[in-house]
Automatic annotation (TrEMBL):
The keyword Ribonucleoprotein does not apply. SMART domains: HTH_LACI. It comes from the Bacteria. Gene3D superfamilies: 3.40.50.2300, lambda repressor-like DNA-binding domains. It comes from Nonomuraea rhodomycinica. This is LacI family DNA-binding transcriptional regulator.
Length: 331
């Protein structure tokens, strides 16, 4: 059977092709009785709009690129951040009949591919996540005539709206909690210093120690569990007397707990541990992990809403979401 055409829909409804097209494209300048007639004809004929032709008329693709500046091994790993952002963004976009196009960009060739794809008009907008300091995409995409928003403050000076959580304030909550518990030698396992989250959480840690007359003891990881284990062993070697550690994300904290256990250090008796993110696994570590809640679902949802607002000429003001301390047994 031949695929039903828009002309057939118009003929069945007794309207012009232009009127049928306006109904199909969601325009509101059609009388309710005429709209009902066209929708009834669509249902009776089983008409499905041609997405390419519809895009030519509406100048919309109903697709949004979610560009992740990480390799596949990182995105499809044990880190729940990426799957949570992808799922939350997809759910929010579905409410307005749009879909996510997932694109990974961790190399020069993939950066060029993403830029070509977006410049080609295949998406209505772009959401960026997990950007690193040397990432050329934010500046490149900001020059294109397409709305762009970022999950997290961009690491380079570029005029892109963003949604972030209070990384500095959250880190300060964590370290003040350790200070209030009487801990004196408080170390940190910081995140990557080419990422804003890593930089800001280290800043929050240093702010509190400076105000409480304690010295900084810093090791740096890359937000993976293995890097947390390695950094914890390094800290114990550098300062065997440390009695607390603030870890810049929960996955690294899981690795740190493993290294402390292997070194015979009791948590929290010998060393208190506080993480950041409040991933589901934080409830099931041994002991359960005290951490700072990073509102990932809310942040991803706010990112989508910021982008949808830009489609309608809305404000491009940054959005900062609050964090909160979740106290469990590790500190």
């Amino acid at each position: 059977m031949r695929r039903p055409t828009l002309e057939a829909v118009a003929a069945r409804a007794g309207v012009s092709r232009a009127t049928a097209s306006r109904v199909v494209n969601g325009q509101t300048t059609v009388a309710p009785n005429i709209r009902d007639a066209v929708l009834r004809a669509i249902d009776e004929l089983g008409y499905v709009p041609n997405p390419a032709a519809r895009s030519l008329v509406t100048q919309r693709t109903d697709s949004v690129a979610l560009v992740v500046s990480e390799p596949p091994t990182r995105v499809f790993s044990e880190d729940p951040l990426f799957s949570t952002v992808i799922r939350s963004a997809s759910v929010e976009l579905e409410t307005v009949n749009k879909q996510v196009v997932l694109m990974l960009a961790s190399s020069a060739s993939s950066h060029a591919r993403v830029e070509r794809y977006i410049a080609g008009g295949h998406v209505d907008g772009v959401m960026l996540i997990s950007m690193h300091g040397a990432d050329p995409l934010p500046a490149a995409l900001s020059r294109l005539r397409v709305p762009v928003v970022s999950y997290g403050r961009p690491a380079v000076p570029v005029d892109i709206p963003y949604v972030d959580n209070d990384n500095v304030g959250g880190a300060e909550l964590a370290v003040r909690h350790l200070v209030a518990g009487g801990r004196r030698r408080i170390a940190t396992i910081a995140g990557p210093q080419d990422m804003i989250g890593g930089q800001d959480r280290l800043t929050g840690y240093r702010n509190v120690l400076r105000d409480s007359d304690r010295r900084s003891i810093v090791a740096v990881g890359d937000f993976t569990r293995e890097s947390g284990a390695v950094a914890m062993r390094q800290l114990l070697g550098d300062d065997p007397g440390l009695d607390a550690v603030f870890v810049a994300n929960d996955l690294m904290a899981v690795g740190a707990l493993q290294s402390l256990r292997q070194a015979g250090r009791r948590v929290p008796d010998d060393v208190a541990v506080v993480g950041f993110d409040d991933i589901e696994a934080a409830q099931y570590t041994e002991p359960p992990l005290t951490t700072v809640r990073h509102p990932v679902v809310e942040q991803a949802t706010a990112m989508v809403r910021l982008l949808l607002g830009l489609f309608e000429g809305g404000p491009a003001d940054p959005v900062i979401l609050p964090t909160e301390l979740v106290v469990r047994e590790s500190a």
